[in-house]
Inverse folding.
């Protein structure tokens, strides 16, 4: 079984400042890693995913994440946030050979961008 | 191409009532799933299906039933609603991965359910 821990439930940040959202996972098997974003009153959208290869993954809207296998982490970063980045962000994992590639989600991090 | 659609958007039930949450997708995706979202707990998988006629339980299946008679539809049934089932429910679909890892999951807009 897999588990995901998002260390910060809320992150306030000023506009144009950088932000880092932390994600750690636990798994006894190899995993795929994902970050999803949920804007207010909407469903989830995929920001980026790590399947294999380069550990630095770039996603949409200027976000990137780095996979660190030794620390079992997949932290999300953006160098300069906008008001429109106010949303909830979810880290998720899927075991490489899981039936149906089921996703296990973390508890989410609410990002509030202040002007 | 409407993607993943869910109805209703909002529902209020009394304890003991039953209802069906509808989910449909028009992308010919084989894999569909239902999640519930509760504050601080992220999304938890209720049931999933890897194709028509095939369903399986997720992490929190108790109190819910599903069926998959067509590729497009994946309804979620609450047999006897309880206050603990107050939540936001999301349906998702994805194509079967042809190679490498899983494809992107596409989420519906959600159904907000309040059980009194």
């Amino acid at each position: 079984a897999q588990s995901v821990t998002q260390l910060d439930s809320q992150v306030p940040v000023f506009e144009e400042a950088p932000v880092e959202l932390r994600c750690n996972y636990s798994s006894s098997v190899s995993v795929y890693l994902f970050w999803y974003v949920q804007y207010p009153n909407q469903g989830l959208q995929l920001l980026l995913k790590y399947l294999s290869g380069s550990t630095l993954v770039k996603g949409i809207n200027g976000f990137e994440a780095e996979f660190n296998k030794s620390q079992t982490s997949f932290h999300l970063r953006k160098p300069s946030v906008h008001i429109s980045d106010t949303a909830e962000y979810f880290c998720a994992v899927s075991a490489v050979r899981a039936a149906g590639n089921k996703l296990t989600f973390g508890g989410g991090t609410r990002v509030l961008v202040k002007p | 191409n409407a993607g993943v659609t869910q109805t209703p958007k909002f529902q209020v039930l009394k304890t003991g009532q039953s209802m069906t949450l509808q989910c449909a997708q028009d992308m010919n995706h084989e894999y569909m799933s239902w999640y519930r979202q509760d504050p601080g707990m992220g999304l938890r998988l209720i049931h999933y299906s890897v194709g028509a006629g095939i369903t399986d339980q997720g992490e929190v299946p108790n109190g819910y039933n599903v069926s998959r008679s067509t590729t497009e539809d994946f309804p979620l049934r609450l047999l006897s609603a309880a206050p603990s089932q107050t939540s936001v429910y999301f349906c998702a679909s994805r194509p079967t991965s042809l190679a490498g890892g899983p494809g992107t999951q596409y989420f519906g807009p959600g159904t907000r359910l309040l059980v009194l």
About this structure: Chain B has a mean pLDDT of 91. DSSP finds no helices and eleven strands in chain B.
